[in-house]
């Protein structure tokens, strides 16, 4: 879906998409999953306080898509008044019992020792203009990401896979 979004948003800008990582997205829940949430449908079928992300966040777009797939909408959920501005904020809201559930990456749940229900695996890409791809800063970033140290650190983050990092996945004119 990101190739279409980039093609629409960057028409005529000459953008290349570079694979960065695959990552696991899912529901972040309180330790032990006290409300016995099993999936997206359960967010509306129980008294679950859901923390959303800001409307333009990828996790929020994914949550709305997953809700639509099961015949639900954000209006069917008991959402907190203010969205989380980052996945870290979302994890902390669940940890601090301000929310019962939210959608984020697996590494956030792991970091805060929260429960996690995987729902979707997505490819996370970098969008770079053609003219910048060959410039020193982008090449330095890609060279750093190819180091053993970077790969070892990435391997410590649950839900991430960087084996295809640096592969060009879309090359728009």
Layout of secondary structure:
Elements: H1 2-9, E1 15-29, H2 42-45, E2 49-50, H3 58-69, E3 78-79, H4 87-95, E4 101-105, H5 106-111, E5 115-129, H6 130-133, H7 136-145, H8 148-155, E6 160-161, E7 168-171
Parallel strand pairs: 2-3
Antiparallel strand pairs: 1-4, 1-5, 1-6, 1-7
Describe, in plain words, how this protein is organized in 3D.
With 173 residues, the chain is an alpha+beta fold. The protein is 35% helix and 26% strand. The strands form 2 sheets. Strands 1, 4, 5, 6 and 7 form a 5-stranded antiparallel sheet that branches.
Radius of gyration using CA atoms only: 18 Å
Oligomer: single chain
* Fraction in beta strands: 25-35%
Query: From N to C, what is the helix and strand string?
Result: HEHEHEHEHEHHHEE
Mean pLDDT: 92
Can you tell me the residue ranges where pLDDT is under 50 for at least 5 consecutive residues? none
The biggest sheet amounts to: 5 strands, antiparallel
Helix content: 25-40%
